[in-house]
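Need a sequence for this fold. Nothing fancy.
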């Protein structure tokens, strides 16, 4: 690891990220109807404490203040997602009032000199489409293209950077196989079908947007890991690492960048559930993989942690870090999101852990970027589109209510661990650039504390604290640290 000052190249973008359902609130305003998350959050036991995104950070009403805050932090780019159920309620006709929100947001960003970085799908499928089969239905991919084109109709004159999907692994295997994310379905076949139709939606959208405007910058964001064998000489450990790499990384990287699903993983799953694999294979039409592999302008990488794997059961092992769900009495049990990994075990290696119990492993990010830049996508610009950590923040200071308004102001949030996490991962990103990997940006997850899916408001990832009673925003120490890094363009 490099220890001298790391100065980022001109043009490297520093930003922060959010997602529609996690921050917007205003869940049923201006014509928006339910998404699968509105429905799922209302199912008993689906989300910790039954919390919903009904209000969240109330960003729908406070977006102008939030953009001002981004300016104060010095953010150069802002990654956000549009809500399908706002733009096309129930997946049907275009809702001008819903689109108008994103129109205002984009104008506000541009006026503040902040580059809008738009994601079309961050997990909030209209519930009406789920009721017609959701992502297990091929038709959903067609509906998605219509939705994408309607967002482009409204914003294409001002938005250059378009990401089709955020983390299709989560919206397929975590959602349709493990049942811990919306819509909470369980089964290998449903997860495999969902993944294929999500990727098809991605490819068709890339083709359609490209045809409309060849100047757009088009990409997809994948959540990727670094899966290491506990003992590189133990074939069972090597095989455990292969399975996790295969089901998590290669299941998406291979079709998107090479036009084929990984054969080893297909045969692993066939051993567990041959009928599921047969039905999935029948759902792949001729030409689908060419569509899915439509050329891209960049690849978005979400990195939180790596993992150490063994083929041998581990005493007292905590289990997969990819549960995405919550342990506890009021929360439903999950199935593994890895259909063919019963013989995979996670090994404790004594690294520090975040509030999600995820390991802190910055050098894993350097290795991941190197692998993508050499093995998978030489020449394809990479962006770290999410990286961050949940911690219990220490709030200090005179948080006195203004007698006139009742609004509490002031206060400091000390989150030294998050500040350190960001600094180390920005440095790890730089180390990849220095090796020659074409990494063009880094987005902190997240701008604001927000709705952390099945954890409700129980986990805070923000560099800005949100008081959910008053909606007050307080820049955390990590936010100030990130602002300093951006101002210096160095770490
Ligand atoms: C990502 N896993 O989610 C999402 O893109 C964000 O919306 C989310 O808030 C953030 O990371 C923090 O969790 C993930 O189980 C959720 O491996 C779960 C997993 C990975 C990513």
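Here you go.
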């Amino acid at each position: 690891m490099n220890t001298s000052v790391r100065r980022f190249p001109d043009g490297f973008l520093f930003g922060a990220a959010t997602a529609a359902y996690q921050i917007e609130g205003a869940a049923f305003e201006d014509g928006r109807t339910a998404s699968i998350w509105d429905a799922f959050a209302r199912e008993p036991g689906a989300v910790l404490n039954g919390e919903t995104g009904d209000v969240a950070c109330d960003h729908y009403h406070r977006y102008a203040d939030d953009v001002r805050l981004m300016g104060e932090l010095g953010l150069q780019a802002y990654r956000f997602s549009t809500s399908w159920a706002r733009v096309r309620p129930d997946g049907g006709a275009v809702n001008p009032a819903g689109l108008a929100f994103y129109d205002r947001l984009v104008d506000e960003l541009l006026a503040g000199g902040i580059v809008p970085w738009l994601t079309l799908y961050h997990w909030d499928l209209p519930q009406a489409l789920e009721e017609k089969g959701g992502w297990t239905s091929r038709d959903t991919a067609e509906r998605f293209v219509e939705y994408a084109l309607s967002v482009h109709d409204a914003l294409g004159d001002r938005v250059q950077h378009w990401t089709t999907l955020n983390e299709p692994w989560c919206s397929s295997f975590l959602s349709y196989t493990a049942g811990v994310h919306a819509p909470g379905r369980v089964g290998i076949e449903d997860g495999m079908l969902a993944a294929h139709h999500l990727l098809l939606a991605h490819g068709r959208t890339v083709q359609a947007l490209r045809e409309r405007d060849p100047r757009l910058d088009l990409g997809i964001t994948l959540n990727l890991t670094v899966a290491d064998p506990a003992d590189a000489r133990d074939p069972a450990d090597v095989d455990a690492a292969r399975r996790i790499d295969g089901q998590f990384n290669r299941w998406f990287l291979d079709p998107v960048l090479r036009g084929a699903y990984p054969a080893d993983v297909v045969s692993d799953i066939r051993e567990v559930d041959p009928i599921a694999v047969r039905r999935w294979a029948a759902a792949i039409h001729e030409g689908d993989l060419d569509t899915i592999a439509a050329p891209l302008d960049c690849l978005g990488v979400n990195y939180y942690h790596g993992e150490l794997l063994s083929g041998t059961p581990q005493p007292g092992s905590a289990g997969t870090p990819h549960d995405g769900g919550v342990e506890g009495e009021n929360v439903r049990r999950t199935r593994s999101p890895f259909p063919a990994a019963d013989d995979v075990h996670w090994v404790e290696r004594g690294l520090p852990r975040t509030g999600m119990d995820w390991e802190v492993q910055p050098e894993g990010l350097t290795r991941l970027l190197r692998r993508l830049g050499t093995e998978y996508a030489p020449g394809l610009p990479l962006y770290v589109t999410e990286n961050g950590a949940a911690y219990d923040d220490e709030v200090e200071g005179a948080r006195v209510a203004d007698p006139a308004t009742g609004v509490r102001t002031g206060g400091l949030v000390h989150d030294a661990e998050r500040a350190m996490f960001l600094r180390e991962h920005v440095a790890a990103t730089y180390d990849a650039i220095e090796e020659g990997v074409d990494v063009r940006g880094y987005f902190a997850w997240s701008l604001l504390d927000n709705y952390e899916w099945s954890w409700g408001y129980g986990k805070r990832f923000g560099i800005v604290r949100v008081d959910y009673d008053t909606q007050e925003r307080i820049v955390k120490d990590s936010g100030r640290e990130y602002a300093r890094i951006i101002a210096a363009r160095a770490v």
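For context: The mean pLDDT is 95.
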